[in-house]
């Protein structure tokens, strides 16, 4: 069975785009699951109060559940908040509860308000969990939660939906990333752009694909995620599409995307 190559150093990727519905959560959980199912230990941080990533990974996120909210407040450490997902024993998740909805405001008056998540994701804590990848699923805004995610990561993965206005708002995201890089986190860069919800029947999808590749070149993964009913059905069963329908085009394309990400950052390729 194919094993994804492990990175030389642990990789922390923030999945961001302030537009809602572009495939942030879907891409986070399915890429993370693909890595985990192919032997690479991975952690997903659900940073959206909606808790959609927690749901898709079959992780409890009722109010009162230990979550990313307690991590941000410094009331709990990573080991206590990270739980195994149902997607794979190699995949852990820190869930988000609705408590997180208040955090955007509560953080404003806190010390080191932009650094809270970074502090929680200390090298020691991540080493203890023994994870090679961390994916942070952002809410659809550029507020303090997303800033915390950008400070905690060194890579940004931007999902772009192959639709009208695909590039709208991207300038704002990129300039926020620049701001965070110059003031808070010099190692931050956009490492990966993923085209999602591609519909091969429309000319528009190809136009968007070409436009995005023209702008961003090799940062854009070769793999494009097709629009697929299976992908959208899976979360309703608290599953990733890899578990829900492993042979579907959606599942296979997420495995391909994960492999591309892993191979780009590979320290070494493990023997099969
Ligand atoms: P975001 O996290 O950016 O708000 P989601 O990942 O939640 O976006 O996706 C928005 C909606 O689109 C969800 O209902 C999801 O199931 C659906 N969706 C995402 N990717 C696909 C796809 N490739 N094909 C069909 N539906 C998709
Ligand atoms: Mg989401």
From TrEMBL:
Q: Which InterPro entries would you find in this protein's record?
A: AAA_dom, DNA_Partitioning_ATPase, P-loop_NTPase
Q: Which domain of life is it from?
A: Bacteria
Organism phylogeny: Bacteria, Bacillati, Actinomycetota, Actinomycetes, Pseudonocardiales
Query: What Pfam families has UniProt attached to this entry?
Result: AAA_31
Protein species of origin: Pseudonocardia thermophila
Its biological purpose is as follows: May play a role in septum formation.
Q: Where is the AAA domain?
A: 11-189
What is this protein's name?
A: Chromosome segregation ATPase
Family the UniProt entry places it in: Belongs to the ParA family.
């Amino acid at each position: 069975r194919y094993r994804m190559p492990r990175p030389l150093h642990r990789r922390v990727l923030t999945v961001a785009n302030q537009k809602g519905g572009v495939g942030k959560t879907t891409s986070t959980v399915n890429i993370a699951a693909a890595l985990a199912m192919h032997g690479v230990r991975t952690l997903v941080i659900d940073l959206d109060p909606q808790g959609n990533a927690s749901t898709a990974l079959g992780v409890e996120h009722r109010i009162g559940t230990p979550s990313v909210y307690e991590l941000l407040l410094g009331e709990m450490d990573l080991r206590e908040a990270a739980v195994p997902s149902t997607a794979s024993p190699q995949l852990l998740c820190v869930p988000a509860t609705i408590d997180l909805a208040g955090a955007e405001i509560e953080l404003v008056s806190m010390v080191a308000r932009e650094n809270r998540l970074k502090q929680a994701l200390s090298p020691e804590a991540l080493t203890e969990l023994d994870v090679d990848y961390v994916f942070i699923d952002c809410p659809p805004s550029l507020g303090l939660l997303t800033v915390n995610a950008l400070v905690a990561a060194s890579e940004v993965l931007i999902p772009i939906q192959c639709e009208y206005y695909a590039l709208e708002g991207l300038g704002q995201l990129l300039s926020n990333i620049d701001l965070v890089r110059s003031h808070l986190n010099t190692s931050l860069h956009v490492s990966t752009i993923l085209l999602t919800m591609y519909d091969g029947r429309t000319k528009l999808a190809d136009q968007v694909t070409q436009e995005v590749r023209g702008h961003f070149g090799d940062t854009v993964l070769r793999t494009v995620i097709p629009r697929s009913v299976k992908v959208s059905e899976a979360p309703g069963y608290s599953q990733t599409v890899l578990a829900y329908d492993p042979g579907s085009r959606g599942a296979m394309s997420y495995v391909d995307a994960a492999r591309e990400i892993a191979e780009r950052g590979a320290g070494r390729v493990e023997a099969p």
